[in-house]
Write a sequence for this structure.
């Protein structure tokens, strides 16, 4: 049993060794020039004899189809704090009042047929939402955390 499990490992090592050994004098010469260039960066430059090359990336069709499907979607599943559920006019009023509180959280109106809900925040995890829930409950004691589609967080641009 031990010999059988060693056999694939030996084949892998042999294949790796064969792939690393230069198969011609041109490859050996190229490796020598590259090693010299690494040891003496000011004295040597490496030029490919055939000129500049191109890199082609071949991806499986499954990956391409998933990428095309997700392109354009800007919502992910996350959590929000629901502060109101009722009529559209009252939800809009509640949203406006919440935004003036200065919590720094965004507030959205979501249609929950036949009612409308005012939901605050865009949290990726339940833990983040529950941390902010205590602050929101100071103004809206009946508020609670719900799972919802959220706007993904925006990355800040790096300043030079």
């Amino acid at each position: 049993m031990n010999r059988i499990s060693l056999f694939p490992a030996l084949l892998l090592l042999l294949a790796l060794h064969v792939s690393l050994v230069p198969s011609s004098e041109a490859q050996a010469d190229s490796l020598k020039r590259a090693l010299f260039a690494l040891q003496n960066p000011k004295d040597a430059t490496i030029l490919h004899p055939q000129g500049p090359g191109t890199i082609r990336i071949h991806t499986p069709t499954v990956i391409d189809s998933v990428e095309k499907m997700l392109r354009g979607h800007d919502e992910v599943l996350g959590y929000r704090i629901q502060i109101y559920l009722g009529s559209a006019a009252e939800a809009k009023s509640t949203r406006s009042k919440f935004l003036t509180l200065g919590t720094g959280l965004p507030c959205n109106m979501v249609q929950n047929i036949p009612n409308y809900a005012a939901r605050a925040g865009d949290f990726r995890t339940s833990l983040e939402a529950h941390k902010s829930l205590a602050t929101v409950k100071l103004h809206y004691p009946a508020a609670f955390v719900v799972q919802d589609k959220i706007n993904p967080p925006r990355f800040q641009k790096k300043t030079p």
The first helix runs from residue 2 to 20. Strands lie at 76-86, 107-112, 115-123, 144-150. The two ends are 60 Å apart (CA to CA).
